[in-house]
Amino acid sequence: MLSKAISLFAITLLAAGLAGCGHSTHVAYVTVPSTNAVAGYRVDNSTGAFTRIFGSPFAAGLSPAAVVVHPAGKLAYAANQGENTISMFKIDSSTGGLNEVLPRTPSGSGPASLKINAAGSLLFAVNRLSNNISVYGVGSDGKLSEISGSPFATGPGPGNAILAVSEKFLYVPLSNFASVAGFSVGSDGTLAAIAGSPFAVGTGPSSLAVDPSGKFLYVANTLSNTLSVFTIDSSAGGLTPIFGSPFNVGTAPIALSFDPTGTFLYVANFSTSNISGFMIDAATGIPTEITDSPFAAGTGPVFLTLDSGNKYLLCANQSASTISVLQINPTTGALTTAQTPSTGSPPTSIFVQK
């Protein structure tokens, strides 16, 4: 009886600690398709240490490939690539745990990427196998309703989409067509092709990044080991290659992320399991590799994202089943490994709650 009382007391203290730790930790979610689940972690704001949330991983549909959190922080969505659906979860405000709300929403074939706008009113699902983007209005209860005209055709092999220039434009790499498709985004979420789209890039484009100023678009070309860089027409959305583009990078570049200031751009190189760092000229967009680059990552890095505290870069390592937590030197851009938590199964994406 005494040991049971002690256990209950410990659980109560743990729950209380989690409920009151919003100022010292935040939440990160990681898709682990091989277990049909989304893993949840508390991330320490100071150290970057990951602590698995009680009950994690949380069951989703078949082979979830991507996860996003609604800007209000109360709901999360996962793209279930293996069954062509989108799961919606309620987020426990005390623990960060996920509770799925059924039924799941039908999507196109092979949903592999999700993007939600800043207002939380629109959700975009990139369907890799049906070569299109499903667009949904998000209700006050979080439920998804596909808009009129959806899905919108993209071209072959669409990848991770990105919203740019105050969310007026959406860009998506077309891995099977060596190009990037660009769309203007209507107030209701309707997508219309930008003049000149698709725009030619290197072979096997896989990931996109836009600098914080919204002036330049960067494209990781996995099969040609290059980085394409474009200026973005802020009024029409057209893309124009900058002088010198494309630029040589590491082997099989697959993911991109900026530091919070836009001074440094990081490129995950899948085949060499490292991350190249570049200083970006704010006026021209030209990348210059920084000292000591590339920096070590785990085996098979596939996804990069900036942590919400802006101190760390998070790298999902598919082959190692780990997350590399890399501290960013704000002066030099150098990366230093701070933590390497295990995910247990190969991760494919990370979303950090702001």
What does the model show?
- The chain is 5% helix and 48% strand.
- The longest helix has 18 residues, at 2-19.
- Residues 1-22 have low confidence and may be disordered.
- It has 1 helix and 33 strands.
- It has one helix spanning 2-19, and strands spanning 25-32, 37-44, 50-52, 58-59, 64-69, 75-80, 85-91, 98-106, 111-116, 122-127, 132-138, 144-146, 152-153, 162-164, 169-174, 179-185, 191-193, 199-200, 205-210, 216-221, 226-232, 239-241, 247-248, 253-258, 264-269, 274-280, 287-289, 295-296, 301-306, 312-317, 322-328, 335-339, 349-352.
- The chain has 354 residues and is mostly beta strands.
- The strands form 7 sheets. Strands 1, 2, 3, 4 and 33 form a 5-stranded antiparallel sheet that branches.
- A hairpin with a 5-residue loop joins β29 (301-306) and β30.
Global structural class: mainly beta
- The count of DSSP E runs of length 2 or more, i.e. the number of strands, is 33
Unreliably modeled segments: 1-22
Mean pLDDT: 93
The coarse overall form would be: globular
Largest sheet: 5 strands, antiparallel
Offer a few descriptive terms:
mainly beta, 33 strands, disordered N terminus, five-stranded antiparallel β-sheet, 354 residues, 1 helix
Outline of this structure?
The protein is mostly beta strands and 354 residues long.
How is the secondary structure organized here?
Elements: H1 2-19, E1 25-32, E2 37-44, E3 50-52, E4 58-59, E5 64-69, E6 75-80, E7 85-91, E8 98-106, E9 111-116, E10 122-127, E11 132-138, E12 144-146, E13 152-153, E14 162-164, E15 169-174, E16 179-185, E17 191-193, E18 199-200, E19 205-210, E20 216-221, E21 226-232, E22 239-241, E23 247-248, E24 253-258, E25 264-269, E26 274-280, E27 287-289, E28 295-296, E29 301-306, E30 312-317, E31 322-328, E32 335-339, E33 349-352
Antiparallel strand pairs: 1-2, 1-33, 2-3, 2-4, 5-6, 6-7, 7-8, 9-10, 10-11, 11-12, 11-13, 14-15, 15-16, 16-17, 16-18, 19-20, 20-21, 21-22, 21-23, 24-25, 25-26, 26-27, 26-28, 29-30, 30-31, 31-32
